[in-house]
Design brief:
This protein is α+β, with helices and mostly antiparallel strands. It has seven helices and ten strands. It has two domains: 64 residues, Arc Repressor Mutant, subunit A, CATH 1.10.10.10; 153 residues, Chorismate lyase-like (Chorismate lyase). The protein has a six-stranded antiparallel sheet. Strands 1-2 form a two-stranded antiparallel sheet. Strands 3-10 form a two-stranded parallel ribbon.
């Protein structure tokens, strides 16, 4: 099946051929692609051309190559809303999957100087802290460390966050009116890596989030996601005040 003539480079046309098969549904997630030699014969191009196309699609996360086994269509990564603040349990259920969580800490603590500055409250003497691992179909997809202004959510420590979520409780007592997001790529380290089931130096996304209700900072959060199996994304209308609905 030679590729049709086109102005684009051959390796781009090979990529287009593969993406077309995936887009049509012919090659679904975890489908094993033909070998490089088979693609060379089918498409009438050099092995170097096929190798470059496969390498670039693998780097883009479209394919997964397993040494000695073959090349496979990558499973679709779960995606969390970037611009919006949404309940992770709701996102997971919307994908038709099962959400579960484990509460590792739920406590009152004294904020350091930096944390008090983030709350924009120099006189803040105590904050509530929770550390929760969220799972999708039993697989950890987020570690959530949340610091909460006690004056805005006084019953926070009394909640059962394995039956509900911090988002659900906080939206009832201090609805979000403003959000700040900062995302960085980090190495998770031993503790967070262990909670996410990844190596300490594996790629990891860290989302730092502050939320306001009116003029008060309600939460200062750190959310870790395994970079190899999760992504953050959003869509919004240019000129609008928020994400597209």
């Amino acid at each position: 099946m030679p590729l049709p003539d086109a102005a684009s480079p051959l390796y781009e046309r090979v990529k287009g051929y593969i993406l077309g098969r995936i887009g049509s549904g012919e090659w679904i997630a975890e489908h094993k692609l033909p070998s490089e030699n088979d693609l060379v014969q089918q498409l009438g191009v050099s092995r170097m051309t096929v190798h470059r196309a496969l390498r670039e699609l693998t780097s883009a996360g479209v394919l997964v190559r397993v040494q000695g086994v073959g090349t496979f269509v990558a499973a679709t990564r779960p995606q969390s809303a970037l611009m919006e603040v949404r309940d992770i349990a709701e996102e997971i259920r919307a994908r038709g999957h099962r959400h579960s969580s484990a509460v590792l800490a739920l406590e009152k603590t004294r904020p350091g100087r930096d944390l008090a500055r983030e709350f924009e409250a120099a006189g803040l003497r105590t904050v509530f802290r929770s550390l929760i691992v969220h799972r999708e179909n039993g697989e950890p997809v987020q570690v959530e460390e949340r610091h909460v202004n006690p004056g805005m959510a006084p019953a926070y420590l009394e909640q059962d966050f394995e039956r509900t979520t911090p988002y659900d409780y906080l939206q009832r007592c201090a609805p979000v009116t403003e959000v700040e997001h900062v995302i960085t790529a980090v190495r998770p380290g031993a503790e967070i890596g262990s909670l996410l089931g990844i190596a300490p130096d594996a790629p990891c996304l860290l989302l730092r989030r502050r939320t306001w209700s009116g003029t008060a900072v309600v939460t200062v959060n750190r959310l870790w996601y395994p970079g190899e199996r999760y992504s953050l994304g959003g869509r919004y209308r240019v000129g609008s005040r928020g994400p597209a609905s």
